[in-house]
Prior knowledge:
By secondary structure, the protein is α+β, with helices and mostly antiparallel strands. The chain has helices spanning 63-72, 91-98, 124-133, 138-142, 145-162, 167-184, 191-210, 218-238, 244-253, 259-290, 294-300, 304-315, 347-350, 385-402, 437-442; strands at 2-4, 11-13, 75-79, 84-88, 104-105, 164-166, 322-326, 330-332, 335-337, 342-345, 403-408, 415-416, 427-429, 431-436.
Amino acid sequence: MTITCPLTGATADAAGAAPSAGDQAGVVRQTEPTLPPYSHELDWPDGLEPFKVVDDGSQGDPYAHYAWMLENAPVLRAASATTDVWFISRFEDVRKALRAPKVFSSEVVKPVPLTFLTLIDAPDHARLRQIVAKAFTPKAIGLFEDRIRETATRLLDGLIARGGGDVVEEYAIPLSMSTISALLDVPAEDFDKMKFWSDETFSYFGRLARNAPGTGTDEESANAFFAYLKDTMERLHAAGNESVGGQIARMWKDGQLSEKEAKELCAFVFIAGHDTTTILLANAFRVCAENPQLLAQVRETPSGAEKFVEELARFRGTVQRVSRVTTEDVEVAGVVVPAGSIVRLMPAAANHDPRKYPNPDVFDLDRDTSGHMGFGHGVHACLGAPLARLETVVTAELLSQRLAGVALDPAHPIEYVRGNNLTNSGPERLVVSVEGRNTVEGSHE
Length: 445
């Protein structure tokens, strides 16, 4: 009888000793670990397309896929044009992987093509993160609360006056972009140009680092964005500006960052500071439409807005996939993932694991959300989480105070973000109708 090691593939006799070299019937041999079937080879339920590396339109709202994967394929192997990709979905497995950066490396592409923190391991990751970390503490972010509340109130007033609209374009994007622009002290007069550059740069990042489809113009646009940010940092440095942008500029001028690092790090902060928050804010409107009792519940519950944000981040968080590459063979949920494998950790799926959160598909304001990964986990936990939390808390407070109701517009189905960056999932267009609370109350006087 021989025993095979599941990690190395080496075999030995039952006593634990390898047979002698002359015993041809039992020569020590290396065998490849048995690989699970591909996603497209599995028996998916009717109406559910096999889960794919690049969304073809069937995964815009992926939670039905996640529910099936969590129970039937917690380690899912999918084929792509270049390599196999492994999806890991269960809470404990994702948590352990995020806490093991030496085994699950962030440097999926070498050399690292862009100074985006999500692509970098220690020690460079710690060095670069430290440059901007002080600007994203709750205390530092709190200085922007009045500005955020003023902007959010103005935008919501507009929606109420119009009876509703596309909350992505008319609320979430302008609020998140104006906030991150203020934090970096990057002019935001031309929202359309800045949004276009940001989206194109995110597409460029996805193409270089995730084998995502590009736009055809993303590299040119990204370089234009980097040039714009370089000019902005020159201005901030000359003025002795104390913003995050000014801090990055000082590090560049003092020789602690290269020009390339400074431009790309500034772009990363801008993109990460608004893109994910945009989707989270839009999802706030969505869950209020899908759960009509929420507006009153948030309004009447102590710390209701804070509880709302944590459950929202668990229930419909923004970041769906976190890319890693394994540095050694590793066993996950009984499956051996080979060294050098491209892995997608799935925090949004993990947040719906019933082993961690009972009845995960119910939005429960009173749920114990501790440990959720809606803002990441481990050394790569979301740097901008305090900012995203503040913007969403303000939004939850305003919605509960100002609205009597919000409803999805059946004439305009939700349009979902398509995965050029293979990271985020959520509404790209979300049209709602809204009723102002004061108007409704006044009608009963």
